[in-house]
Amino acid sequence: MRSSLRRTRRTGLPAAGLVSALLLTGCSTAWEGAGGEPAAAPVQDVLLQPLGAHGPDPFTASTVRNTAPPAAPAGGQDEGTTRAREVTGSTPGLYGGTRAVGSCDVERQVALLAADRTKARAFAEAAGIPEANVADWLRGLTPVALRADTRVTDHGYREGRAAAYQAVLQTGTSVLVDQYGSPRVRCACGNPLRSPATDPGGVHQGEPWDGFDPDRVIVVRPTASVVASLIIVNTTDSTWIERRTGSDGDEDQAPAVAPACDPDTCALTGSGTPDPDAPGHDASPAPATPDPARPTTPRPETPDPSGTGTDPAQPVPDPYTEPYPDPYTEPFAEPSDPSAPDGQVPPEELFPAGAVPDRPETFQG
């Protein structure tokens, strides 16, 4: 058995005692910055959360729909790797589901939080959204199921506030993911989810499930830009489904360009960078508006061989970065008097005819 498995500790702590232990190991509700990354903690134990378990201090009752849990894809992490593998949120096969059926009842989740304003406020704080936007935010998420054991920052509802802790969610867990492919809500308990701590450094708490392997736990990395759809695996017949983000499955269809691997054997390997030719999976940043202070188009490495300046690879000058003409350096008009010496302007052009104020001349030369 791998050495990392020895760190998994089986424990029968009651829920209240477990939460107290988690809080003592550095779990808190403190967050850093607007990007939603959790504040660093010295050491945090990681709670193992089985497929259907509510976990300690759930926010709401379960909103999971009875759908077949997806099987984990074949393949695993390279031997000798101790850090959780990162997989991009738009990777084909990262999630599963049933065609035309969402894995979570989003409207029920909205109603459960709307019935308790204090709980809704704590939920919004943990999720990093305004309290007034909870319902619309939930309706913009996509219900899917995990196809790999996934580490997250989970939140329980305790004494009117959200208590953060590190957790691993079992394969098959129903979640709601955002438009960047990141899990944001665990449907079995209504808990808001965030990105996990970089390296919690603690041990695994709880009872491991069959097939649990710390070396095969993944971390979902958000895409760099919004994705229009996710390519997921149909759990009923192991086919590909394209699910539009923010939909409940009612618009599911077969992808126009299916991934190259088979759904049953498509392993979540490497960094999980999606196929750029797959529909809805452009993980590159969207074209940005040019910065008026700095051109964004790189200069070509080779000049136009024709010397005409019409090479299509030649960057188009940015009108906002071209200097405006300096009116004080523009050449004067040609003198109208051809007899005037070079470099001098006739007095009648320098000082047009007209009323001249009564004051001494101050110009020299």
Secondary structure: helix percent: 10-25%
Largest sheet: 7 strands, mixed
Round the mean pLDDT to the nearest integer and report it: 73
> What's the helix count?
5
Order of helices and strands: EHEEEEEHHHEEEEEEEEEEH
Radius of gyration: 31 Å
Q: Which parts are unreliable, with pLDDT below 50 for 5 consecutive residues or more?
A: 1-35, 76-82, 270-336, 359-365
Q: Which band does the percent of strand residues land in?
A: 15-25%
Say how many strands there are. Answer: 16
Oligomer: single chain
Principal-axes shape call: globular
Class based on secondary structure composition and strand pairing: alpha/beta
Strand order of the largest sheet: 12-11-10-7-6-15-16
**Span from first to last CA?**
96 Å
Task: Please characterize this protein's 3D structure.
This protein is α/β, with parallel strands linked by helices and 365 residues long. It is 11% helix and 20% strand. It contains 5 helices and 16 strands. Strand 10 and strand 11 (183-186) form a beta hairpin.
